[in-house]
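We emphasize that the prediction below concerns an isolated chain of 224 residues; any contacts that depend on oligomerization or on bound cofactors are therefore not represented. The input was used exactly as deposited, without trimming of termini.
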Amino acid sequence: MSEYALLPAVEIETAPSPNAAVIFLHGLGDDGHGWSDMVPALRLPSGAAVRYVFPHAPEMPVTINGGYVMPAWYDLYDADFGARADLAGVRMSQSHLEHLVARERQRGVAASRIVVGGFSQGGAVALYAGLRHAERLAGIVALSTYLVDPQSLSAEASAANKRTPIFIGHGTQDEVVRFEWGRSSAKLLEDAGFPVEWHDYAMPHSAVLEELEDLGKFIARVLA
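Result of the prediction step, given as a token string:
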């Protein structure tokens, strides 16, 4: 994959010569800095040599926000769950994420040592891309998000990631990506045979320390 297509990103390495990577996509209107502060809260074992990559989404007009230009992984057309996502935009961001995974492979990190994840819009892209990635990944993380284009999953899902652990966390008070959207997305994946680890928290559309600690345990386990 060509270097020019790589998105700028915040990178944090916990030790020299990392042998694992976590690529995490922020939510709508945010940037990579917004989630880079979570690294200490994950409390990974002291010996873990992990590179965290927090890319910045491109800026684009967002229909649901009156066409205002902001960092976004795809356009949002409507507040209705079934009609929200611009699928072409999701696929463009899937390509951006694939480029970032390919760079970690070029840096010597095996695909099976790479976790892809994100929050809200970023989580939707991570789920979409991770389930379709050709090589086995270490894990997929989806926080406060939902499954985009579920009707295509059975035809497009990668056999390599059929057993890849998936961490899904959602706030019971979320009024942006409603709790039932997250829960129904998780159930759809569970019913399709994917190994989902579901967590819910008494929070709005955000993250709490308990969630980050649970996520840290998940990452430590899939990278063990």
